[in-house]
From TrEMBL:
Membrane disposition: Multi-pass membrane protein
UniProt GO cellular component terms: plasma membrane protein complex
UniProt similarity note: Belongs to the ABC-4 integral membrane protein family. LolC/E subfamily.
UniProt entry keywords in alphabetical sequence: Cell membrane, Membrane, Transmembrane, Transmembrane helix
Pfam families in the cross-refs: FtsX, MacB_PCD
InterPro entries listed in its UniProt record: ABC3_permease_C, Lipoprotein-release_system, MacB_PCD
GO biological process: lipoprotein localization to outer membrane
PANTHER family documented for this protein: LIPOPROTEIN-RELEASING SYSTEM TRANSMEMBRANE PROTEIN LOLE (PTHR30489:SF0)
Keyword Phosphoprotein: no
ABC3 transporter permease C-terminal domain sequence ranges: 282-405
TM region(s), chain numbering: 20-40, 277-298, 325-355, 375-395
Protein name: ABC transporter
């Protein structure tokens, strides 16, 4: 085996320029693959992290996935019900005190109950449609990152009580109102109530910044004439991965629709999976192109060393030795390219992490490219490189092993 290694080294060093080109081809492919994977994975992780941080992990509403079971269906084995008119009852989660107490006993995280009502916000002669959300400020701060999005005032100002309200800065601009002004909220029931603006937030999401207003839960209940009512419970878990199981348990016990963040963003997560498939397909294509260079060099060596192969086989070298020799040369080029490419990928990833810029159009700043440092990227890129190198080396190695030494020495080949 030591002799095989020495012969392989002699073949490689004997074609230094061609070998250098092949190694650089593999290195560039590996380096760009690592940098691309770090950037794309970083963007994906940053997107998912923002999505998980800004929305509840489980959202329980007063909706039901299926209509309530009718009493006739419990009495008769076969029943066809038509023309049924639903009861004219007020929407909301029934017995909210018991529901929140039950959730408190087992949910591994925090939750906040709220009452969302549709209404109109007025100031002087202007008005905008809005979702008026009644919350418990202390509990809301535990499940929502909105406290970090205030441009004036704070969400904690609601804790002081009274007729206070926080609104999006876009809504305030449309109304012509500002911090400290008194606006009027009109519910869909026709009830009105005056509130003082104690905070302006900017989330960067237009629908929220121009269409949401937060008040104390009791004020929302009074405004909508629904005392003690809630219609949404938002849960923030210590481990977001537990969201599907928590949602299933809550829905089976309470009977209301409970949606995990994975379910709510299923199409987005599927798109991310497809993007990863495309990314690794491109990586494989890059390594395949590099493999053609290796194949060309090993094939040329095989052709040039045909007489040497014949002599070696006549001296007792087996076909397996011939295959191993040229396969070893291909893998050696792939390994050298992978090592050099890993260093190149590390340098490129570090350079990308140093790029600084700002996006101020949405009111949010991103001062650097999202980069993920992962050993897996280096392993995958190197595995692709070594695999393509092994295949590129095996094909001419198999041909070399099948050469007949007698035919070569006689000049038949």
């Amino acid at each position: 085996m030591r002799l095989i290694f020495d012969i392989a080294a002699t073949h490689i060093t004997g074609r230094g320029r061609q070998m250098l080109v092949a190694v650089l081809g593999v290195a560039v492919g590996v380096g760009f693959s690592i940098a691309m994977a770090a950037l794309m994975q970083g963007g994906q992780d940053d997107f998912v992290r923002q999505m998980v941080d800004t929305m509840p992990h489980v959202d329980i509403s007063d909706e039901r996935r299926t209509p309530r079971r009718q009493p006739a269906e419990d009495v008769f084995a076969t029943a066809a019900i038509s023309g049924l008119r639903p009861r004219d009852d007020r929407r909301g989660i029934i017995n909210p005190t018991a529901a929140t107490a039950w959730l408190e006993s087992w949910v591994p995280g925090r939750f906040a109950a709220s009452l969302k009502a549709q209404g109109v916000i007025r100031y002087a002669s202007r008005e905008v449609g809005a979702a008026i959300i009644g919350v418990d400020p202390e509990r809301e701060l535990a499940v929502s990152p909105i406290a970090e999005d205030f441009v004036e005032g704070s969400f904690a100002a609601l804790i002081a009580g009274g007729n206070n309200i926080v609104v999006g800065d876009t809504m305030a601009t449309r109304l012509g109102a500002g911090f400290g002004d008194t606006i009027t909220a009109v519910s869909s029931e026709g009830l009105t109530r005056n509130f003082k603006i104690v905070g302006l937030f900017h989330t960067g999401t237009t629908a929220r910044d121009e269409g949401e207003a937060y008040v104390l839960l009791k004020n929302a209940q009074i405004l909508s004439a629904r005392p003690n009512a809630i219609n949404e419970i938002r849960i923030k878990l210590d481990d977001p991965g537990l969201a599907p199981s928590v949602a299933r348990r809550a829905e089976s016990e309470l009977g209301y629709e409970a949606v995990a963040w994975q379910e709510a963003n299923e199409s987005i997560l599927e798109a991310l999976v497809i993007r990863n498939v495309i990314m690794y397909t491109v990586v494989g294509a890059i390594m395949l192109v590099a493999g053609f260079g290796i194949y060309n060099i090993i094939s040329t060596i095989t052709h040039e060393k045909a007489r040497d192969i014949a002599i070696m086989k006549s001296l007792g070298f087996r076909e397996a030795d011939m295959r191993g020799l040229f396969l070893l040369e291909g893998v050696a080029i792939g390994a050298a390219g992978s090592a050099l490419g890993s260093l190149l990928g590390l340098a490129m990833t570090y350079a990308l992490s140093l790029i600084r810029f700002e996006i101020a159009a949405t009111g949010q700043e991103m001062t650097h490219l999202p980069i993920t440092w992962s050993l897996l990227h280096y392993v995958i890129a190197s595995a692709f490189a070594l695999s393509s190198a092994a295949v590129a080396g095996y094909l001419p190695a198999r041909r070399a092993a099948g050469l007949n030494p007698v035919d070569i020495i006689r000049g038949a080949s």
